Amino acid sequence: MTDHRSPDARFRTSLLEENDGPATNPTDNRTMGEIIASRFSRRGFLKGSLAVSAIAATVSPLALVSADNARAAEGSAFSFDELEAGIDDKHHVAPGYDADVLLRWGDPLFADSPEFDPTKQSAEAQLKQFGYNNDYIGYIPIDGSAEHGLLVVNHEYTNSHLMFPGIVKVVDKDGKKALEVAPLSKEQVDVEMAAHGGTIVEIRKDGGKWQVVRDGKLNRRISSNTEMALSGPAAGHDRLKTSADPSGTKVIGTLNNCAGGVTPWGTYVMAEENIHGYFSGELPADHKEATNYKRLGIPEGAYEWGAHYDRFDLAKEPNEANRFGWIVEVDVNDPTSTPRKRTAMGRFKHEGAESIVAKDGRVVFYLGDDERFDYVYKFVTKGTFNPNDRAANMNLLDDGTLHVAKFAEDGSVEWLPIVFGQGPLTAENGFADQADVLIETRRAADLLGATKMDRPEDIQPNAGNGKVYVMLTNNSKRKAEQVDAANPRAENAFGHIIEIVEDGGDFTATKGKWEVLLKCGDPSVAEVGATFSTATTANGWFGMPDNCAVDSAGRLWVATDGQGPKATGRTDGLWAVDTEGSARATSKLFFRVPIGAEMCGPLFAPDDQTAFVAVQHPGDGGEDWEAFGRPSYYEDLSTRWPDFKPDMPVRPSVVAITKQGGGKIAI
């Protein structure tokens, strides 16, 4: 196992999202920056705003903007007084709104759940409590209600230095502060494993405020030890077999569930992302999986689970890592059901799986691979969605075609099918069947010549205007020779947003058009090259777009990850972004998180009267704790949000935002 407990160690689990592997793409496929530069170097951007270009002309006549969004042609689609950007230990929301903490790490979920006691943590207690580092949020109505439903929440990872007392010391080393981090006990590792996974919990709005229903019959915790089934083309393959599961069809647990989705038939989709951090041990250099694992940065060894459980030690279970990195589907209507890892959707560092029903009834899922220089995907089901028969839809995700995006200089995008036997995906290149192709999705996409992107994260289709929004968070590994008009900085620190329109307004199309909606960062700094509209205020710009949501009015909301004292001088938050008309590329700050936190979610209730947001890892300084002035750990936290009690640590939480007096958000 990698020794990361040296006196000058950093909190390695905090770095999974920032490091996200050692830039593992070995190809010379063109980067998105190079393509954008070639496309736009021959024509300038309009000062302070992107032109509404020819892409608008390709929108299907069926792509109608809703009545609530119609005024975008004359001005902003958003009506709220903007929040002031900044950094402190609290959360803040725009004037006229309430932001109430709904669920905190450790909150009881069942009638027999113990109350949270941070000094007496156990795996048994954690499995009956809300998990750690809430990320994706979904809402599934009960009886069609916008005020009574199931909240589904991913728990991406754990930060042991914020969770457990007594494991961190700050010492002087060569005149500088350094950290000594004690190894975790098996009992603490068990708590970490229980705090991963997901939560399904019944919630109800009462008197204008949301409440958890602790005796909800569908409430459930899913963890790193929940039994799951592998299904689809790779199920039962030799490369997925282990000593504990010689069938290659049964997996224990799910890891690093980042963004996700809710299917049209009302199931919960969890996306496994940075799985590399959980594995330790070494494979022989000539092992058959060595190249496969190197492409995913496995093993990285941020977690100590391999010291206590053989399945996370590659030297003992070399195939175990192939059983992670998939999309997991959960039937929320049956709390005893076995979650299924849908291998037809590919194996990589999944950031989300947002879906939309196409005109012909097939269902399309957009998938980002969250690593620098990796790819944008979409999966199209073979079968069609039956709105009148839920049971008929329950295996749609086991059969379909996964595609990877190739962007061209002329503003076109082609979706390349990832299918065994087509093009280079043959035995000559080491693929024996479709299972091999899906287990090594990244290598298959490499060979197809997909476009290398700047950390593709959340991808959101918009049924209202027929467009697809791709969040590209940043790329700190962009080299100086790649600086160009669309990425005018070495190390693309602030990211950008791509907008796609599929041909004919058909989300199943294999071709479409693309445009840059926004290049992010501070527009007042010329060399940054940000392209927010001139109507965007000093509070309205942002960097590092990560998660996003489209509300029922068809409006785009963007959450960020990576802002802070060093990067932007402001915390992460939720911004409302205009995409239509004269206000296009105007952004306004609506909500911001406490110091050290990341903004996740967001999710709008079906009636748009609640915005649910997830505040992840508050108080975490990560690698850049010097920029915060000091390290932040259990005994000496930079914030004790949300309880602000001396005996309570910082607690990742879901917040419900509502308009004072009622009504729709930002209308």
Automatic annotation (TrEMBL):
PROSITE patterns: TAT. Pfam families: PhoX. Residues 1-11 have a biased composition (Basic and acidic residues). Residues 1-30 are annotated as: Disordered. SUPFAM superfamilies: Calcium-dependent phosphotriesterase (SSF63829). Transmembrane segments: none annotated. InterPro entries: PhoX, TAT_signal. This is dTDP-glucose 4,6-dehydratase. It comes from Mesorhizobium amorphae CCNWGS0123.
